Amino acid sequence: MDGPAPSLLLPHRFGRYTLFDFIGRGGMAEIYLARVKTDAGASRLAVIKLILPEYADNKTFADQLVFEAKLAARLDQPNIVQVFDLGREAGRLYIAMDYIEGIDLSTLLTQCAKRGLALPGNFATTFVVEVLKGLDHAHRRTDDEGNALGIVHRDVSPSNVLVSLEGEVKLCDFGIAHANRAVDAQAMGEALVGKAGYMAPEHARGEAVDARADIFAAGVVLWELLSGKRMYRKGTASSLLEVAKDGHVPAFEATHLPDFERIRGIVRTALAPNRDDRYATAGLFQKDLEGWARANRLLGSPLRLGEWLTETFGTDYIEKRRDRERRVRELEEDSRMATLAQLAEEDRASRSTIPDVPSTPELEWRDAEDRPQSMIETVPLELPRPMFASIVEKKASKAPLLAAIAAAIVFAIAILVFFAK
Ligand SMILES: Nc1ncnc2c1ncn2[C@@H]1O[C@H](COP(=O)(O)OP(=O)(O)OP(=O)(O)O)[C@@H](O)[C@H]1O
Ligand SMILES: [Mg+2]
Question: Which fold has domain 12-181+190-325?
Fold first, then answer.
């Protein structure tokens, strides 16, 4: 997949980390896969989020990020990517976190759209239910004295939802969230404060936000996954940020869903423009969504989700990463780090990402900002066949036999009654 090139030649020694693979680049950082020696002498994998110099050199931003990353490091829950280190190395600000071997939801949707694949309906719901569990934990987190930390993610969006090959769903990037003591992030540019297409109206307007802004954002993700298309679209004369400020949520028209009125009510409550009308907590949103999903057999198992990812996207890119890691490890063990340059030369041309396929212009999930509206495309939702359908079918196929037996019984009774007289 063509993408931005890394600014470092890999492998690259970075403090106690050895960066050996480039994962990608977001609004404010480059993401590298690294190996690190633990205090106990063992080695583990880590993801290094290397903040771009133009941001890291802004003191207010850097202070805020360090403050936030320290908060994020206190979050310890299966649906949140664990942050375990942050600091400066060779003048570069970085955050270290657990590596999630898998795919982010934005790439998953883009690739589904490109390949014309339907997203299984039970996974769509599972993604949001799991994200809500992580959010609920973060929103309720207190300090050691029991005071609310006031953590708000501020950037809940598909690229920050990671899905592992084991079928786990994890929210990352609490590092750019701003707790109660937020600085005026609006002044620093949109890239830092979250993606406009997922912003609650009050967030887009630059007002102070609370946990309910994350509930709105999770609501947008749900709306999009169930509808198979982007929710907010840039108007002819207005940017996506302007559209988000308005908070005019397009009608939810996924009428193919079972128990449609119930799910529509859930989506409507999550996406209420006035935050007082929204779910008060992520936990309440999760309970309602999970209730609907369970009642309609729309919750996927992690095992099946992991299998589906592997079947759909293959594991070549993961194998490539593992292979690079092996080679770096061997060199480390030999203490021949000087020969890393040789590896760097070999690796320069290739990247371990999901193999891309040619895109048809009408099939494209991402880049809603840049494309004419007619070209913003869809990912169809594949719903499991309702359980009662097979029962009804079986009943239907046996109906003539049952009718014949019933007729025979009635006939026999009539004969008996006739002779009894
Ligand atoms: N802990 C991680 N494990 C595995 N992959 C990760 C991890 N963190 C990030 N990534 C990958 O790196 C990509 C880029 O991440 P990054 O956070 O820099 O950009 P983004 O999420 O697209 O934008 P933003 O700057 O708004 O967060 C992600 O979309 C994801 O695919
Ligand atoms: Mg991110």
Answer: Transferase(Phosphotransferase); domain 1 (1.10.510)
Pocket test for ligand 1, best of 17, 32, 95, 162 (most atoms within 8 A of CB): 162
**Cα 1 to Cα 328: distance, rounded to the nearest angstrom:** 23
Q: Whose CA is nearest to atom 5 of ligand 1?
A: 100
From the CA of 27, give the closest atom in ligand 1.
Answer: 25
| Domain extent listing, the chain | 12-181+190-325
Alpha helices in 118-195 (DSSP H): 121-140, 190-193
> Who contacts 217 (Cβ-Cβ below 8 Å, separation ≥6)?
153, 155, 156, 157, 194, 198, 199, 200
Atom of ligand 1 lying closest to residue 160 CA? 21
User: Which region holds residue 247: left if phi is over 0, alpha if psi is between -120 and 50, else beta?
Assistant: left
Q: Quick: pLDDT tens for 99-129.
A: 999 999 999 999 898 888 899 999 999 999 9
Query: Nearest 5°: phi and psi at 48?
Result: -105, 120
Say what the pTM is: 0.83
Q: What is the 3-state secondary structure (H, E, C) of 68-126?
A: HHHHHHCCCCCCECCEEEEEEECCEEEEEECCCCEEEHHHHHHHHHHHCCCEEHHHHHH
Strands ordered across the beta sheet of 17-25: 12-14, 17-25, 29-37, 43-51, 92-97, 83-89
pLDDT tens readout for residues 125-183: 999 999 999 999 999 999 889 998 889 999 999 999 999 999 999 999 985 645 333 33
Percent helix, percent strand, percent coil in the chain, to nearest 5: 50, 15, 40
Q: Are strands 83-89 and 169-171 parallel, antiparallel or unpaired?
A: unpaired
